[in-house]
Design a protein that fits this description.
Immunoglobulin-like; Rossmann fold; 2 domains; six-stranded antiparallel β-sheet; 9 helices; 23% strand; disordered N terminus
Amino acid sequence: MKRLLCFLAAACLYAQPGRGPAVKSPEIAPDGKVTFRLRAPNANEVAVTGIGERLVMTKDGHGVWSATTGALKPDLYTYAFTLDGVSIVDPSNPLRKTAYAGVGSSMMRVPGPSLVEPAAGARGVVAHHFYHSASIGDDRDYYVYTPPNYDPHRKEPYPVFFVLHGLGDDAAAWTNVGAANTILDNLIDSGKAKPMIMVNTLGYGNADGPAGAMRPDMIRMFAKALIEEVLPQVEKQYHVAKDRNARAIAGLSMGGAEAFYTGLNHIDKFAYVGSMSGAFIMWPRANPQPPAPRAAAPGEAPGRGGRSGRRPRLETADFEKNFPNLTAKSASQLKLLWMGCGTDDGLLGVNRQFAAWMKSKDIRFRDEEVPGFAHVWPLWRQNLAELAPQLFQ
């Protein structure tokens, strides 16, 4: 960590040495065009990455590099600067997409009608909780969203929705870049979704975080911590229903694999189970083999296991190992079993494999493949906006 902090300090000093006119970045025009700026007089090449194709910047006489995008549609965007081959955040922009083991990336919102634009109505509240996990052996956190006008004394307890993040992210991801609290505010305000409590818990099932994410027992340990530690705490701290019919669990990428593993092995606890671009390659394998291709982190290209590399595959035995008690009869207790994936996602193959396995067992589920999307946040925000209204009806 000390080395990382020293590196970041050096990068920022290199990027913005000395004094000069204030640099405004990003500057968002009314037409949706965005201008990025970085003071780096000693740099040889600077570019913006993360927003479509790499955007090369040009330097003026004051050592300030700049570049302007085409019109961007209203949404949340993440980006970084590449300065002579080194990726850094925008030092002029305090808005960040957080990460579990790293500096994350810079973030901006292009205003306008979108899923992430706050409604004019009442807003919910997000609270940050900390606890020591006895089962995992470390200190960790989770976030709880309470809906607009939350009443801890109302007669009917609130349903609870666990929404899990992906590999590389932290517990704040769904509110930080996923805008899940704003999406739920808007859906609840418009009457499209029932008022619900959302829980976003840290998704790593071991103290090593992302570095240990491919350990065979990682997802099993996560499920144990969620059910035996996080769920009881939420039920003690908030006015939530303790009926399985008022509980849902879903997640993206790694979180999708965790949501299916947890929910489908604990149907007595959850009546609604969903996966968005599920990284099912992270499930324990029936037959030990070399490490599976790494699941792409949220927002990155599929990489290994995606279109540019070997496509990950699972075997029927892997599904049987992870879901030994899942049958058409047990799954019939679920009010909703939902899975979605983009057609350009490198994980589409394993999602189709699992869907075919469930069909072979006559398990009923809803499956959605969205054309034109890879492993990206805009799809998962859309997934959440489609999934939430189907819950607790």
